[in-house]
Design goal:
The chain is an alpha/beta fold. It has two domains: 150 residues, 3-Layer(aba) Sandwich (Alpha/beta knot); 64 residues, Orthogonal Bundle (Trp Operon Repressor, Chain A), CATH 1.10.1270.20. It has nine helices and nine strands. The strands form three sheets. A five-stranded parallel beta sheet has the order 2-1-6-5-7. Strands 3-4 form a two-stranded antiparallel ribbon. A hairpin with a 2-residue loop joins strand 8 and strand 9. Helix 3 packs across helix 5. It starts with a strand and ends with a helix.
């Protein structure tokens, strides 16, 4: 898969993909990340890419000409989807990242200042992507997140692909608790069930803990999920157990 990133600060990306899973995928040729300096497409000797908004107001707005020119040159006649990183966009989540990974190539435009000229939004981009309900200084950090999240769904990027299927949100539930050595750390012990070697019991424990964690931390995820009869029973047991503990006298 190929990512083309359009930005006015290409230097930001020099080190961000220099380590970890994405770096290995780049070295193997599984992924490509190309960063393009928007100023190179300005057509202006001063390389200006922004201007004051019509109608007045504070801040600057990214001009349409360099963005259109950049996308047209990068596409080279190929119908490639283009996404603007924007707080107004569709929220990036597990499923959306998986959907984006179905493309063999996407172009990401990093927004800046007060935004981009509306003609870019209406006539050029495929959609807008938001990584959360907060404001960043620019779209560059959001581009890091999109590349990292989407890459996990590209075959062979993650060494053990089954680990992606166990990620939080893949099943609609939060991930169960994980433990490693030592067995006893300052009196805090690993649950005995995980040391038993009984894989069936371990799987049942993990399913229960996953449901419990989701119910406690993200109950909204359970509202839109079709629970099996077994999961409903486990969840009811958890609720009864927690209620009993709350009702116990101090």
């Amino acid at each position: 898969m190929r990512f083309d990133i359009i930005t006015i600060f290409p230097e930001i990306f020099r080190s961000v993909f220099s380590g970890g899973v994405v770096k290995k995928a780049l070295e193997k040729g599984i992924l490509e990340v190309h960063v393009h300096d928007l100023r190179e497409f300005s057509g202006d000797k001063h390389k200006q890419v922004d201007d004051r908004p019509f109608g007045g107001g504070q801040g600057m707005v990214l001009k349409p000409e360099p963005i259109f020119a950049a996308v047209e040159e990068i596409r080279q006649g190929v119908d490639t989807p283009v996404y603007l990183l924007s707080p107004q966009g569709k929220r990036l989540d597990f499923r959306y990242a998986e959907e984006l990974a179905q493309h063999t190539r996407i172009i990401l435009i990093c927004g800046r200042y007060e935004g981009v000229d509306e003609r870019v939004t209406r006539h050029l981009i495929t959609g807008e992507i938001s990584i959360g309900d907060y404001i960043l200084t620019g779209g560059e950090p959001a581009a890091f997140v999109v590349v990292d999240a989407v890459s996990r769904f590209v075959p062979k990027v993650v060494g053990k692909e089954d680990s992606v299927k166990n990620d939080t949100f893949f099943t609609g539930l939060l991930e169960f608790p994980q433990y490693t050595r030592p067995r006893d750390f300052k009196g805090m012990k690993v649950p005995e069930i995980l040391l038993s070697g009984d894989h069936s019991s371990i799987e049942s424990w993990r399913r229960r803990k996953s449901l419990e964690k989701t119910w406690l931390l993200r109950p909204d995820l359970l509202e839109g999920r079709a629970l099996s009869q077994e999961e409903k029973k486990i969840l009811n047991d958890i609720k009864t157990e927690k209620k009993g503990k709350r009702d116990e006298p101090n």
